[in-house]
Design brief:
Elements lengths: L4 H9 L7 H11 L4 E4 L6 H14 L10 E6 L3 H14 L7 E4 L5 H8 L3 E6 L1 H9 L10 E5 L1 H6 L3 H8 L7 E6 L6 H8 L4 E4 L10 E7 L5 H9 L6 E5 L3 H13 L4 E4 L5 H13 L4 E4 L12 E6 L6 H8 L9 E7 L4 H11 L5 E3 L36 H9 L7
Helix pairs in contact: 2-3, 3-4, 13-14
């Protein structure tokens, strides 16, 4: 594919000899200097698709980076994904003088500032921490000639659009940019027009398509019965790794505690955990010391843990595309995997949205589909001005409507994602 000899040897040491479809299509365009927009389902090797041509081109540029400069920048939405990208790239540059840096939140900013002083060949960063460091003048992007946006659609979901615009304004116009994602979000055109110049578009699977070797199933079950069903299902494969997705941080901790009481080696990761706690939990999960990991959507993207056999959607996600990313944590690198969803009565809307995105119906494992509940916050139709058909304002006698009823409606609405 035109990759330099030392890089090919580094790949051989890791056992990689054949490119995946996204790598085979994206790498030649990138090596020829084109901007690239890559769309591929999760688990298909996107990191190497941008990492290999990036390292190959940097090998052609001799000399060390100037102090505080960054020769190439890779932006990722989460700390975990950024760390994983860094680890992969270190394997590619092992026998070269190149330095791969990592700057993410939850870690000492002072230590990061010190490491940036000597200049960096490849910097992997989350947008928020990068802006903090730019504000402190700990680095400059004036000499950055290569930019990668990984999982760009999730950066939009997490509200990084303003940070991305600000970073774009600090980069040189003369640069090569690669954007990779598993889905095409509505705002992606804006990102593409802001960052990319006549990009080569590479798509190896339709947006919303799940990995081919994932078997899916849904259980229609009351919310209160979900923990008991989860324990029952986990008992069937105690020796295999299972990733369980909950909607909220508090819910993740509560569920992990219940599973620990049931005798499972379990841990939880979410946004309220420190970076050290999250990394220790992931390391223990990879090593098999923890068999069940409970997580919010902070773990839904990009994490490559090849031995995850089961993914449980204990709570269905509010964003339907996140379901695709969640279940992409299993059936990686050609392996088989199972994705099991639990659907309570108030989650029928989420299930329908997920099936619409995937253009398929998830097979039913148990129970029957619930009737979709009406939105408690929706305005009533066909009523008089007072809230009752033909009634006076506020109900009988013209008294003000109960504020307690409105408060209960809001509390019973869908919870926000963690």
């Amino acid at each position: 594919m035109g990759l330099p000899g030392p890089l090919v040897k580094a790949l051989e040491k890791t056992g990689i000899t054949e490119p995946t479809p996204i790598q085979a299509r994206a790498i030649p365009h990138a090596l020829n200097g084109f901007d690239v927009m890559g769309l591929a389902q999760t688990g298909t090797g996107k990191t190497a698709a941008f990492g290999l041509p990036l390292v190959a081109q940097l090998m052609e540029h001799r000399g060390k980076p100037a102090p505080k400069t960054v020769r190439s920048l890779i932006l990722a939405p989460t700390r975990e994904l950024a760390g994983q990208i860094r680890d992969t790239l270190i394997g590619f540059v092992k026998d070269t003088p190149m330095k791969v840096g990592l700057v993410v939140g939850g870690s000492s900013i002072g230590a990061q500032i010190k490491r940036l002083e000597k200049g960096t060949d490849i910097l992997v960063a989350t947008p928020g921490r990068l802006l903090d460091l730019l504000d402190r003048r700990a680095l400059t992007l004036e000499e950055t000639r290569f930019l990668v946006l990984d999982e760009a659609d999730q950066m939009l979901d997490l509200g990084f659009i303003h940070a991305l615009r600000k970073i774009a304004g600090l980069l040189p116009e003369e640069r090569q940019t690669m954007l990779f994602s598993a889905t095409m979000a509505k705002q992606m055109d804006e990102i593409a027009s802001s960052y990319l110049n006549k990009p080569k578009r590479v798509q190896v699977s339709p947006p919303g398509k799940t990995a081919d070797k994932v078997t899916q199933a849904v259980h229609f079950i009351a919310k209160a019965e979900k923990p008991n069903l989860l324990v029952e299902l986990l008992d069937g494969h105690r020796d295999e790794l299972a990733l369980v997705f909950a909607r909220t941080k508090h819910g993740s901790d509560k569920l992990a505690k219940k599973l620990a009481q049931a005798g499972y080696a379990v841990d939880a990761i979410h946004g309220n955990k420190s970076q050290g706690q999250r990394q220790r939990a992931l390391n223990a999960f990879r090593a098999g010391e923890v068999r069940v990991l409970v997580a919010t959507d902070v773990a839904a993207r990009g994490l490559d843990i090849p031995d995850v056999k089961h993914v449980y959607n204990f709570d269905l996600p509010n964003v339907p595309e996140n379901y695709v990313h969640r279940i992409g944590r299993t059936a990686r690198a050609g392996k088989d995997g199972a994705a099991i969803a639990f659907c309570a009565p108030d989650e029928m809307g989420e299930l329908k949205d997920i099936q619409k995105v995937m253009k398929l119906e998830i097979p039913v494992a148990s129970g029957r589909a619930w009737e979709e509940l009406p939105d408690p916050n929706a305005k009533p139709k066909g009523r008089g001005r007072g809230g009752r058909p033909g009634g006076k304002p506020g109900g009988p006698g013209g008294k003000p409507a109960s504020t307690n009823r409105r408060r209960r409606s809001r509390r019973s609405g869908p919870k926000k994602a963690a």
